[in-house]
Sequence to fold (122 residues):
Amino acid sequence: MEVYIILLTIIAGSAVVAGFPPQGYQKSFDVTQSDKEMLDLLTHKNRYDKRIKPPQQQINVNISVLLLSLSSPDESSLHYEVEFLMHQKWVDTRLAHTRHNGFQHVYALSHHAQIWKPDIFL
Fold:
């Protein structure tokens, strides 16, 4: 079975959390700062380690899957191709921030390599 995955990750964190190290940390952002500038500061190597899971006791990960195509079914070998879109959403309190433009979500697709992501088993 060949599986094609398109992964879109959105990180949301709107509460201000105390206890972050001061190096590279800024918790309040104004309307002039882009998502990239915010994430550069929030994922600074002195305050964020993507190898360590968020500190919450339990991390709720919401997953939705949209089937895009199911093709080339072969009943004799049970081989088929599946293409789907999977969307994950969770809260990482280490990325908590206050944004003064009214938006709580930060679109982190360009920073996906620098943030913690839950393991996926298919």
Notes: Residues 1-24 have pLDDT under 50 and may be disordered. Residues 36 and 110 are 8 Å apart (CA to CA).
